[in-house]
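dude i think i finally got it to work??
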Amino acid sequence: MRVGHVRELWRYPVKSMRGERLPRAAIERRYGVAGDRGWAVREEQVGEIRSAKRVGALVEFAARYVEEPCGAWVPPVEIDLGDRGTVRSDHPELAAKLSDALGFAASLWPRQPADDTDFYRRVDPIDEAEMRRQLALLPDEPIPTYATTPPELAAELREYVSPLGTFFDAVELHLLSTSSLTALGEHAPESDLDVRRFRPNIVVDTRELSGFVEHAWVGRRLRIGPVIADVTMPTSRCVMVTLPQADLPRDRSIMRTLVRATGMDLGVGLAVIEPGTVAIGDPIELVD
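look at this
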């Protein structure tokens, strides 16, 4: 059953920085969009990879690849630090410029092999207060149970900052429908719900459908152009959707709306079964 077509394609070369909008994208097993979250910032004094959940300033910066990535290989990136100019990942003063911009000793790392478990291991504990801060929750709002997260993935993320060998929060591909954005907007007419706040890889135009349609696809299989992917879980949201970036203002009310309307979920995570190249306009179908 056809559910829509590809409206937008995005990749994010550096975890938590603003990304690149693409006319077409190679979709790979394990890595999703080629080069997506190929790099990440590490706080050296702590020895742990950081995201905008803890370092909100990261989303104020933007990154782009200087060459096309492929598979496990990630080429250099150019980072726009706003008023501080641009710097490439292979520049000898990169760490100094990042540290100055972020206010702590920072470095930029490409994805490391999955067997380098010490690199990915969590160092900083996350207590309830920190969890509420990262999720932008009020004291009377419940912390999600993450009951839909596959048990093996949940266990991995308790010990490591990301699935080993990647810098993803969970799974390798994130899809969001225009129907969901419209439905959320009906609950938050004063908010600017620009798609950039939600950092999808694939935006599907579902103009003939209504509501949070992709949540009902969890456990099913999609064909996206030539790509086949399983819909594994809804995407639980965090403080990042509220942060200012580019021309978008800070908006803490977005999380209040998500808590009320969807239990903090918006969009879905996909696991790639058959890779391929996807282009704007490609049809999207439920096949199982």
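Residues 130 and 155 are 19 Å apart (CA to CA).
im so relieved honestly
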